[in-house]
Structure formats: structure tokens, C-alpha cells
Design a protein that fits this description.
Chain A is 71% helix and 1% strand. Chain A is an all-alpha fold. Chain A has a two-stranded antiparallel sheet. Chain A is globular, with a radius of gyration of 22 Å. Chain B has five helices and two strands, in the order αββαααα. Chain B has a two-stranded antiparallel ribbon. In chain B, a hairpin with a 2-residue loop joins strand 1 and strand 2. The radius of gyration of chain B is 25 Å and the shape is flat. Chain B starts with a helix and ends with a helix. Classes of the chains: A mainly alpha, B mainly alpha. Chains A and B meet through helix 8, helix 9, helix 18, helix 19 and helix 20 of A and helix 1, strand 1, strand 2, helix 2 and helix 3 of B.
Chain lengths: 514, 168
């Protein structure tokens, strides 16, 4: 009951005109970014964080959250109409969504995706409301050693569960932590890795780095390939008929559950949620041959799962201070820039803020449903903008985003270097999510490690003597160990089968950039 | 891609060792607890170790691949670097960004973006002149107005006095 009261108060605050306006702006921007291929939600959030500096924390984070879940709605449109996912989470939607479009049922695919996304997103937000109270109680048990252990677990899950090379993911995680150490040491005031440059004394701002890694890196990759596509498909009616609804009902329910459960686990990606949902639908189907030929369940399930995932992703962020994906790490950065530290004490110290943001998610999902059903044709017009114009406009926004953080041209150079680095790392199949995650949580991780060690006079026994910290660290170790064993088994199986020319150990399972 | 992977692994080993060296020069611990060198020291150790592990992995899988493709024609390697045209496009974007970083405080946001957008739209986007003109003027003067007046985001005016006197 108390939770409902808090949520009700949050809803009233979220419905205030200013908050409503920024939820709307966030959703529209997210939808737009999702529709346009070439820029993901992490880069979009990074680009727009400077805009939020002049806003109070509540509308600022409402807007950033709206961008995050809005991109998932928008990403569906290009998947269905052009067989080109606007967002990595929508890759699986291409399989049946594009086939539906070829059969003249594009509108229905988009309609059921919007309905499923709304249900999945709203249900996951309700789950967040329910989980909030027990998490608030658990927060009081957490001190510096536990907090450090939780961050280690978050990192282990991100590198261990995302698939691909564990070593590469760990290297990226370490690199992010190292970048986080640049600047004046907060405890003793000693400059670290600053090369005598005054611009580095405050550390490398994560926003130009992330804009470079994701935004500029993506543009460089696209321009190298010179990939261009023109949209010509007709949308048709967006309202599903009775048969479509009958077939999609179960898929939406299952997608909600799968997305929610995976969203609780830092390191899992929305791609995993949508693929898992698709797999479940194929396995349950009485006629599996329909899949890949325009089965509406193949759109409804995955689209529901990825939106449920996105909203559930806020649970580990709000409760534990662990961002599960790069985009959530960006939102965490936005919160910290506004003086709000996500983590165990968030529900106690910033209850008004957190409940308003949660309530705004319900409103945001309703806004996105409206944007995606009656207004779908407006968005499809965006696809007629040629990439030859689009890349230049996106590049301009990367310049504004990087510069506006601290009005420094040095940040533009940092962004350019990070862009080249992101381009090269992607070409070498390095996952960028662990780097961004540790870039954001690195300073917190170090400060908690040092606090814990100071309290124990430098003894590591503090992590062994405290049961929660020990358990969490053991789970983190188990995750890494499991990943190593899984990798070894996969190599063993490959050795059993004939070697293919591109098997170099450097080619990985395709990885998303959440 | 094996050679590039090997070189990259080597770079990470060297980087890790350099971090260890630099961290070693900082204070590792103080009477009250850990010093500023502790965290980077262990990160550097881990980075060097992981770089080494990856280098060995690349070496082993490279040999296996070489053995598997022995006697067959070349071509199994994934192409890492872009062709000449692709490299030129990538290089042009990097040059445009560096130009923006250098010019923005002298020419101001509007003129810098105007020149960057014209260059990108004509050179890389292959757009018609009218489209280029509309997009670059909107993207420079229009965007400046929106960001500074509506969103209260400060974008730099021209630093050169004669441009500044023109209101740019």
C-alpha cells in the first residue's frame, strides 16, 4: 500500500506539464533515433546529456529514459519496412516483420509491435514498482565492501554473459576502468595520467568518449561501407485483426516474462531477450514452417521482450547502482551529473525523484503507443532522408554534444580520438559495452574499494568477513569461471568439426551494442 | 585479421606495462590505507596479463588456421582495412572533426559548421547544391539559434574580432 502511495505521488509529479513535456520530447527523440539507422540509444543519450544540464534532475532523467525506451519502439520500423534494424534489439524482428511487409502487412507488423512493446514496457514498470520496497530494505545492509563487490559482479556479468570472447570483454572493462583513473586522485589530490595537461586534471569526461566510441565510430563504419538504402514499402492498416490478436496474445505474455527476467541481470542484452522470445515462439508453434514467412508471433514476442527488458533494466540501476547496458550506463552518468547517485540508498534518499521517473515510464509507454499507431506514417517519411545528408547532421550533433559538456575544444579532440578508437575496436570485434560500463562506474568502484580497505587498515579480509560481499564476489567468480568453461567447450566442439577459413579465434558471435 | 589482432594484443601488453610503471611511481599505500597507485597498478597488471593471454590465443588459432588452409588459396582472412575509397571517406570525416576542433573558437560555431557541412555534403554526401545550401545554413545558423536561445546550450561565437563585429 505504501508503495502504491509513493507511486501515486510519483504519477502526479510526472503528470505536471514540464515533466510531461520532457517525457514527450524524450519519446519523440528516442523514436526518431530508433527509426534512423546509424546512431544507437547509448550515443543518442550521450549526445543529449548536455541539453539536460540546464534542467532540474527529474525532467532531465525522464527525458533520457524516454530516449532509451523510445529507441526500441523506433528500431522496429526499419526492421519491418527495410529489413534493416534501427536498433540491435530489433534484429530478430527482421525475420518475420520484413516478410509481413512483403506480403502487404507492414502496418499490422508495426501495430502489433507497438501494442506488444506497450504491454511489455508497462508490465516491467509495474514489476519495478513491486520490487522497489524489498530492495529499499536490502539497501541498508550494503556498505563499501558490498558495493564494490556488486560492481565487480556487474562487470563480471557484462563480460561473461554477453557472448563472444571473454578476454576481449575483460580487456575492454579494464580499459574503461583505466580511463576512469585519469585526473586528480580524489583522496590525495595527486594527478594521475594527465601528461601535464590541465584539461585532464578533472579527468576525461565520459560524454565525449562515448559520443566518439558509439556515434562517430558508427558513422565511420557506415561511410566506409557506403551503405545506403531507399524506402519504398507501403505501410497499410496498422490495426491487427482478430486472428492476429489471437496468435499474438500468448507471445506477448511470454515475451513480457522473458524480457523482464533478463532485464534484471546486468550484462544480458535486449538482443538476447528478443532472440530467446523468438526461440520460445518457434518451439511452441504447431506449424513451425510459418516462421520466417511472416508469422506475427515472430514480431509480437521479440518486440514485447525487448521493451520489457529495457524497463526492467532500471531495476539493477536504481537498486544496486549497476547499469546493465551501455545505454543505462549513460543514464547513470546523467543522474550523477545531476548529483544523484544510483544505488542502494536511492529509494531512501531520493524517493520523490525515483518514483516520478518510474511513473513517467508508464506515461512514456502510452505516448509511444500513440506515436506508433496513429502517427506511424509520419515516422516512415523519415526513412526517405538519404544517408548522404543524415550522416552530416548526426556528425554535427556529435560536435555539439561533445563541446557542450564543458565548452571545451579539447573535448572535441577527445571525441575524435575516441571515434577512431571505437571504429578500430569494432573492426577487431571488441565489445564496447564493458568499456562504457566501467568508464561510468570506475571512479565509484575505486572509491568504494579504497573506503573498504581504509576501514580494514588495508586488509583484504574485509571482503571475506562480510557474508554479502563474499557471496557476491563468489557469484562474480562463478560467472567468469562459467564463461571460461563455456568458451573452452565451444573451442573443443570446433576442434571436433572441420576448421573453416575465417575461424581465427578473433571472429565472434555477433554482438549487440545496447 | 590475425596479424592485426596480434599487434593489438601486443599494444595492450605494452600499455599495461606502462600503466604498471606509472602507477609504481605513485604512492601505493599510506598509513591510513591504499594510495593513488594501488588501483592503476593492479589494472595495469591485469591489462598486460590479458593482452598476453589474447596474444597466445591469436598465435594458437592462427597456427591452427594456417594448418587447416595449407595448400589452399589465400582469401580466408577477413579484411580489416577499408579499400582506398573507404579509407578516404573515413579520413575525410576525421579531418572534418579535427578542423572543427581547431576552428570553432576562431570562426565560431556557425561558420565552422557551415564550412564542415558544405564540405561533407558535397564531398561525401554527393548532394545537389540547393540541398547542400539548405541543410548547411539550417544546420549552422538555425541550429545555433535553437541551441542558444531555446535550449540554453552555449555554443561558441567567433573569436576573431572582425568576425565578432559582424555578429558571428
Amino acid at each position: 500500500m505504501e508503495v502504491l502511495g509513493l507511486f501515486g505521488n510519483g504519477l502526479l509529479t510526472a503528470l505536471q506539464p514540464q515533466n510531461l513535456l520532457f517525457a514527450f520530447i524524450g519519446c519523440v527523440l528516442g523514436q526518431l533515433i530508433g527509426v534512423l539507422p546509424g546512431i544507437g540509444s547509448a550515443a543518442a543519450i550521450a549526445l543529449l546529456i548536455p541539453v539536460t544540464f540546464n534542467l532540474p534532475p527529474v525532467p532531465a532523467i525522464i527525458m533520457l529514459a524516454g530516449i532509451f525506451y523510445g529507441t526500441n519502439y523506433g528500431g522496429t520500423i526499419t526492421s519491418v519496412l527495410m529489413n534493416m534494424p534501427g536498433e540491435s534489439a530489433s534484429v530478430v524482428t527482421c525475420i518475420d516483420g520484413y516478410q509481413m511487409a512483403r506480403q502487404g502487412r507492414a502496418g499490422r507488423a508495426l501495430g502489433i509491435a507497438a501494442i506488444g512493446s506497450f504491454i511489455g514496457g508497462t508490465a516491467a514498470t509495474i514489476g519495478l514498482v513491486v520490487a522497489a520496497k524489498p530492495l529499499t530494505s536490502a539497501a541498508l545492509l550494503v556498505g563499501a565492501p558490498e558495493y564494490f563487490a556488486l560492481m565487480v559482479l556487474g562487470l563480471a556479468l557484462v563480460v561473461g554473459l554477453a557472448g563472444g570472447s571473454l578476454v576481449k570483454a575483460l580487456i575492454m572493462g579494464i580499459l574503461g576502468l583505466l580511463v576512469g583513473t585519469v585526473g586528480i586522485d580524489p583522496a590525495m589530490g595527486v594527478p594521475r595520467f594527465t601528461f601535464g595537461r590541465p584539461e585532464l586534471l578533472d579527468g576525461l569526461s565520459f560524454i565525449p568518449v562515448v559520443i566518439g566510441l558509439f556515434g562517430v565510430g558508427e558513422i565511420l563504419l557506415n561511410l566506409e561501407k557506403k551503405a545506403q538504402q531507399v524506402f519504398r514499402t507501403q505501410v497499410g492498416s496498422v490495426l491487427p485483426d482478430r486472428d492476429d490478436l489471437r496468435r499474438s496474445g500468448g507471445a506477448i505474455a511470454r515475451g513480457t516474462g522473458i524480457g523482464f527476467l533478463l532485464g534484471l541481470i546486468p550484462g544480458a542484452t535486449s538482443v538476447i531477450a528478443s532472440y530467446m522470445s523468438y526461440g520460445v515462439e518457434v518451439r511452441r508453434a504447431s506449424d513451425r514452417s510459418r516462421f520466417g514467412r511472416g508469422a506475427i508471433e515472430g514480431v509480437a514476442g521479440p518486440e514485447t521482450a525487448n521493451n520489457s527488458f529495457v524497463n526492467a533494466n532500471f531495476i539493477p540501476l536504481f537498486a544496486l547502482g549497476i547499469p546493465g547496458t551501455a545505454s543505462v550506463a549513460m543514464i547513470m552518468g546523467g543522474m550523477m551529473a545531476n548529483g544523484i547517485i544510483p544505488g542502494p540508498l536511492l529509494f531512501r534518499d531520493h524517493a520523490d525523484f525515483v518514483w516520478t521517473v518510474i511513473a513517467s515510464m508508464v506515461i512514456g509507454n502510452a505516448i509511444l503507443l500513440i506515436l506508433n499507431l496513429p502517427l506511424i506514417r509520419v515516422w516512415t517519411q523519415m526513412l526517405r532522408v538519404p544517408y548522404g545528408i543524415l550522416f552530416a547532421v548526426i556528425l554535427e550533433f556529435t560536435i555539439i554534444g561533445a563541446y557542450a559538456v564543458s565548452n571545451s575544444t579539447f573535448d572535441l579532440t577527445v571525441m575524435t580520438v575516441a571515434g577512431l578508437l571505437g571504429y578500430l575496436l569494432r573492426k577487431l570485434d571488441f565489445p564496447l559495452a564493458p568499456l562504457v560500463l566501467t568508464l561510468v562506474i570506475g571512479p565509484l568502484m575505486e572509491s568504494n574499494l579504497r573506503k573498504a580497505l581504509e576501514a580494514s587498515a588495508g586488509s583484504l579480509s574485509t571482503f571475506v568477513d562480510r557474508p554479502i560481499a563474499l557471496t557476491v564476489l563468489c557469484v562474480a567468480g562463478a560467472v567468469v569461471l562459467w564463461s571460461v568453461i563455456r568458451g573452452a567447450l565451444a573451442r573443443f566442439r570446433r576442434d571436433e568439426s572441420p576448421v573453416t577459413p575465417d575461424e581465427t579465434g578473433t571472429t565472434e558471435v555477433p554482438r549487440s551494442t545496447p | 585479421m590475425t596479424r592485426a589482432s596480434g599487434v593489438t594484443a601486443g599494444v595492450f601488453v605494452v600499455l599495461g606495462l606502462w600503466v604498471v610503471y606509472e602507477a609504481h611511481r605513485m604512492t601505493y599505500s599510506t598509513p591510513t590505507g591504499p594510495g593513488p597507485g594501488l588501483f592503476p597498478f593492479w589494472l595495469g597488471c591485469l591489462l598486460a596479463l590479458l593482452g598476453l593471454v589474447w596474444f597466445v590465443q591469436v598465435l594458437v588459432t592462427g597456427r591452427r588456421q594456417a594448418a587447416a588452409t595449407a595448400g589452399r588459396s589465400e582469401g580466408g582472412q577477413q579484411r580489416l582495412w577499408p579499400g582506398r575509397a573507404g579509407a578516404l571517406r573515413v579520413g575525410a570525416v576525421v579531418v572534418a572533426l579535427l578542423y572543427a576542433a581547431l576552428a570553432v573558437e576562431w570562426l565560431g560555431f556557425r561558420l565552422t559548421m557551415l564550412t564542415v557541412l558544405i564540405a561533407l555534403l558535397v564531398g561525401l554526401g554527393r548532394q545537389r547544391l540547393i540541398v547542400t545550401a539548405i541543410v548547411s545554413v539550417t544546420g549552422s545558423f538555425g541550429v545555433y539559434y535553437v541551441f542558444t536561445h531555446w535550449l540554453s546550450v552555449q555554443l561558441p561565437p567567433a573569436g576573431l574580432p572582425w568576425l565578432s563585429s559582424l555578429g558571428l
